[in-house]
Write a structure and sequence with these properties.
Distance between the termini: 42 Å
Mean pLDDT: 80
Oligomer: single chain
Helix content: over 70%
Low-confidence stretches: 1-6, 406-411
Number of strands: 0
Length: about 400
């Protein structure tokens, strides 16, 4: 049972849980290919295929289980599912630590995908304990935790992997275990029994959960906007290093520093600046202004003639990051308490589907417009595709928000 008066510890626990989920994904980036290479006796082609399979397996399990965990949290409470995910994550990482074959490695990463599918439960928990007018800030803090996890994960994985390739996963298992113990002692339940609803498999499967979004036109429109944002971001992630190396001759160190700048700037904007921006501008102008700012940043990414221009676009891009958590706040205010988990699970599934498709789109565009065989050499074309996706997001958001009453910003 949680300790009395422990509600104040709830938000830090949720932030740590999200941070560890992203960290677990990030630490695998620099070491997993080398582990696979050793298991496949040094075959680069075979290692590449297995790496792709492991990444796809991770994303697929997140897609399948995000709505299931969200719906289970609507039935049994957020605390139970979050603690089970933390405990399961510790076991999953240990499977990777002791995996004797690449098949066991695949099992471990797919199990990690299951436990990392707790994002919708964390989102629902924030919605449960945060007043509607402050939810944008709550989701901004989650965005900050995501940004730090994406930055620190590869760094920690690279440093620990230099000592031993399995050590990063062992450390991740220990951190997940400590998170479980801490949450067991201090985390209160956020969903009262009277707001819970029966669990139904027919509503928890990914396809049904996505169709359920149609019940609320506002949620459906904002979810579509988020998908366009995630498509742009997924394409950016897949070609960042390839594009900057081709265009500006950036080394791995320079790319690492640029990604670190992205992560820390994102954490600063969403953790510290979001609340005053929303208070000053209101939800509608924050969302549309954020998307428009990101669109300009992606155009700058795609057409940047020099690395310094590209770096300047990073600051513009991260400032536009105020849009996503503000939309998350609007979505939670449009949904009944007993359906928060299911809706957040459906949105997470949409994001996971997008992240499966985005790398293929980005890589295909980069390959088609790069090199001597390209009819139109333009290695920045994936970023321009991202700008087009953000343009679609702006139009969808403008239409959805135009149907909603205007909230007057606080003075």
């Amino acid at each position: 049972m949680p300790l009395p008066g422990s509600r104040s510890a709830a938000v830090p626990f949720i932030l740590v849980t999200i941070f560890l989920d992203v960290l677990a994904f990030g630490i695998a980036i620099p070491v997993l290919p080398e582990i696979i290479r050793q298991m496949t006796e040094g075959s680069a082609d075979l290692a590449a295929r297995w790496t792709g399979l492991l990444m796809a397996g991770f994303a697929f399990m997140q897609f399948v289980f995000a709505p299931i965990l969200g719906a289970l949290s609507d039935r049994f409470g957020r605390r139970t599912i979050l603690l089970a995910s933390a405990f399961g994550a510790a076991l999953d990482h240990l499977v990777v630590v002791f995996a004797p074959t690449v098949w066991w490695l695949l099992v471990g990463r797919m199990l990690c995908g299951v436990t990392a599918a707790s994002f919708p439960v964390a989102n629902a928990y924030i919605a449960d304990i945060t007043p509607p007018e402050h939810r944008a800030r709550g989701f901004g803090l989650l965005g900050a935790a995501l940004g730090l996890g994406f930055v620190l994960g590869p760094i920690i994985g690279g440093v620990l992997g230099g000592i031993d390739l399995r050590l990063p996963f062992m450390v991740a298992a220990g951190l997940a275990g400590l998170s479980f113990i801490y949450g067991f002692l201090v985390l209160p339940e956020s969903l009262p029994a009277e707001h819970r609803r029966p669990f139904r498999w027919s509503q928890a499967n990914p396809a049904a959960s996505l169709l359920a979004l149609r019940e609320n036109p506002t949620v459906m429109g904002l979810a579509g906007t988020l998908v366009c944002l995630m498509l742009a971001f997924g394409v950016l992630q897949s070609v960042w290093v390839l594009s900057t190396a081709e265009r500006f001759g950036w080394s791995p160190l320079e790319n690492g520093l640029s990604l670190t700048l992205v992560g820390f700037a994102t954490a600063l904007v969403q953790g510290a600046l979001l609340s005053p921006i929303v208070k000053r501008l209101g939800d509608r102008r924050t969302i549309l202004g954020g998307i428009g700012t990101m669109l300009l940043a992606y155009v700058a990414y795609g057409l940047a003639p020099a690395g310094v221009v590209f770096c300047a676009a990073i600051l513009m891009h991260t400032l536009g990051g105020v849009a996503s958590p503000t939309m998350q706040g609007l979505i939670t205010r449009s949904v009944d308490p007993g359906r928060q988990g299911a809706v957040q699970g459906a949105i997470t599934s949409l994001n996971n589907l997008t992240f499966i498709a985005a790398p293929m789109i980005g890589a295909g565009l980069f390959a088609g417009f790069t090199g001597p065989a390209a009819a139109l050499p333009l290695p920045g074309i994936p970023f321009l595709f991202g700008a087009a996706s953000l343009g679609a997001a702006f139009l969808i958001a403008r239409r959805v928000l135009g149907r909603m009453p205007v909230a007057v910003p606080a003075e």
